[in-house]
């Protein structure tokens, strides 16, 4: 364990820690943020920060249960990505901003980097895929479509372009990308790791229900144009930097992870309160 935040309310707030995993992805060290939620039995989730072109530098305890991670942006000299991770009742918030490594030396890029947080449920026994066949996990994953809560096995799932049609991972497809109802469905290339479903979401929430049906967990924001359910019991919810027209130093990247009783209506209400832009949208 690299560092564990000092949690002033462990019975009310998730406990955060950062560790570096050099086993899960041989030859590559992954910086993981672990969150242990007190309100859901035996629930721990992890977020790889980040599956992006950045290098982890360090992490510090900010007090009040919060952590701050620093990454160097590899293709922008002298530019840092700073992420504050905040525990809340039933939730954890990630907020990123850009900063110059040496203030006054250089400028922040106008086009900010793509930040790809890989949120994982491998360490949550009541939510993870194992020991069941992976397609059983897909049946418990959900998003919100114009039909309401929709489990991913009930969406149209196109085959993985980079694999043969007869491949076991294509029958049914193990991974899938999704876009919003307000968008045209993107075209995935022949080498893509996943294709886009023809079913689109009405609000940027993707999550999973526990095996016993009593609990749910989800990742959400207010403006993601794409989301994905991927290989490692993981989901990706890709918010843009906002406000879009603000100076680079004033823009923020923000996403939240939630864990609570299995009440999709309560989840949606909480997300819309936290992210007004997440209000369900139709075409």
Distance between the termini: 46 Å
Overall average residue pLDDT:
96
N-to-C SSE series? EEEEEEEEEHEEEEEEEEH
Number of domains: 1
> Tell me about the biggest sheet?
9 strands, antiparallel
How many β strands by DSSP?
17
Q: What integer value in Å does the Rg equal?
A: 18 Å
Instruction: Please identify the structural class as seen in this structure.
Output: mainly beta
Strand order of the largest sheet: 5-6-7-8-17-14-13-10-11
Fraction in beta strands:
35-45%
Unreliable residue runs: none
Categorize the overall geometry: globular
Distinct helical segment count = 2
Percent helix, as a range, is under 10%
Description:
The protein is mainly beta. The protein has one domain. The protein is 6% helix and 37% strand. It is built from 2 helices and 17 strands. The strands form 2 sheets. The protein has a 9-stranded antiparallel beta sheet with strand order 5-6-7-8-17-14-13-10-11. Strands 1-2-3-4-9-16-15-12 form an 8-stranded antiparallel beta sheet, with no helix packed on it. The longest helix has 11 residues. The protein is globular. The mean pLDDT is 96.
Task: Give the gist of this structure.
This protein is mostly beta strands and 283 residues long. The chain is built from two helices and 17 strands.
Please give the structural blueprint:
Blueprint: E1 3-4, E2 15-21, E3 30-37, E4 43-48, E5 54-63, E6 66-73, E7 79-88, E8 91-100, E9 118-120, H1 134-140, E10 141-145, E11 148-151, E12 176-179, E13 205-209, E14 215-220, E15 226-229, E16 234-237, E17 253-261, H2 264-274
Antiparallel strand pairs: 1-2, 2-3, 3-4, 4-9, 5-6, 6-7, 7-8, 8-17, 9-16, 10-11, 10-13, 12-15, 13-14, 14-17, 15-16
């Amino acid at each position: 364990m690299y560092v564990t935040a000092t949690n002033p309310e462990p019975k009310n707030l998730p406990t955060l820690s950062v560790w570096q995993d050099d086993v899960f992805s041989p030859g590559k060290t992954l910086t993981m943020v672990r969150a242990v939620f007190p309100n859901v039995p035996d629930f721990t989730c992890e977020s790889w920060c980040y599956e992006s072109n950045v290098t982890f530098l360090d992490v510090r305890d900010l007090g009040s249960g919060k952590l701050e991670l620093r990454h160097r942006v590899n293709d922008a000299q002298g530019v840092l990505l700073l992420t504050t991770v905040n525990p809340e009742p039933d939730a954890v918030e990630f907020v990123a901003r850009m900063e110059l490594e040496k203030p006054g030396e250089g400028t922040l890029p106008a086009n900010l980097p793509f930040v790809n947080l890989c949120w994982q449920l491998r360490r949550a026994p009541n939510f993870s895929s194992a020991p069941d066949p992976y397609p059983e996990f897909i049946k418990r994953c959900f998003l919100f479509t114009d039909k309401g809560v929709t489990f991913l096995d009930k969406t149209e799932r196109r085959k993985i372009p980079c694999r043969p049609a007869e491949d076991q991972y294509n029958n049914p497809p193990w991974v899938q990308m999704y876009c919003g109802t307000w968008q045209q469905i993107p075209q995935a290339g022949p080498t893509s790791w996943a294709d886009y479903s023809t079913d689109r979401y009405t609000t940027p929430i993707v999550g999973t229900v526990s095996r016993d049906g009593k609990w749910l967990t989800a990742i959400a924001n207010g403006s993601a144009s794409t989301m994905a359910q991927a290989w490692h019991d993981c989901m990706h919810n890709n918010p843009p930097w906002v406000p879009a027209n603000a100076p680079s130093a004033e823009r923020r990247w923000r996403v939240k992870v939630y864990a609570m009783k299995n009440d999709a209506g309560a989840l949606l209400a909480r997300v819309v309160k936290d992210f007004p832009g997440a209000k369900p949208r139709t075409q």
